[in-house]
Amino acid sequence: xxxxxxxxxxxxxxxxxxxxxxxxxxxxxxxxxxxxxxxxxxxxxxxxxxxxxxxxxxxxxxxxxxxxxxxxxxxxxxxxxxxxxxxxxxxxxxxxxxxxxxxxxxxxxxxxxxxxxxxxxxxxxxxxxxxxxxxxxxxxxxxxxxxxxxxxxxxxxxxxxxxxxxxxxxxxxxxxxxxxxxxxxxxxxxxxxxxxxxxx
Length: 200
Known about the structure:
This protein is of the alpha/beta class. It has six helices and seven strands. Helix 1 crosses helix 5, helix 2 (81-92) runs parallel beside helix 3 and helix 5 (166-186) packs antiparallel against helix 6 (191-198). The radius of gyration is 16 Å and the shape is globular. The model is unreliable at 1-6 (pLDDT under 50).
C-alpha cells in the first residue's frame, strides 16, 4: 500500500482569514469572541475543519470561492493575537493586504458590521497587537458590533468578556452570515462591493 503525504497546509495560500477571540469554553458566548463565532460559522459553511494546532492557533485549510484560504483562530488570548498572525503570515508568505481580520467592536450595536480596507486599531487590543507585530495597518478588517458599555462606570474589560443576551446572540448569528458573504466578495478582490452591500 502506498501512503501519500497530505498536501494540507503545503504550498501557498491566497488569503488568511483571522477570527479574534479568547480560547476556553467560558468565553465562547462573550462579546470579545464575535470573531471566533463568525469564523466558526464560515468554516462550517465551507466545510473547513479548524482543528490543527500550529503557530499558537487553531488552523483550517480550505477554499472559499475557489481561493485557497487559511482560517486562523489565535489561542494566545486577545491581547497577544498578533504573535500568532505574524508567525503564520511569515511562514506561509501571505502578504499583509491579504490578511482579513474579523473582530468585535463596542462602537457598533449588535447586528451591525463595518468593513475597512485598513486603519487604526480603534481601541481593540487584539487589533492593536496585530498591527504592532505586522508593523503595518494595511490589511482589511471586518468589525462586528457587540454594543457599548451600559454606563460609563462599567469596566471595559468586564464588558467585553460578558455574555451576549439571548436576543443579542441571535443578532450576532445573523450578522455572521453577512460577514461570510463579505469575505466571499473580498477574496474575489471585490472589497468595494462588500463595503457597499454590508457596511451598516
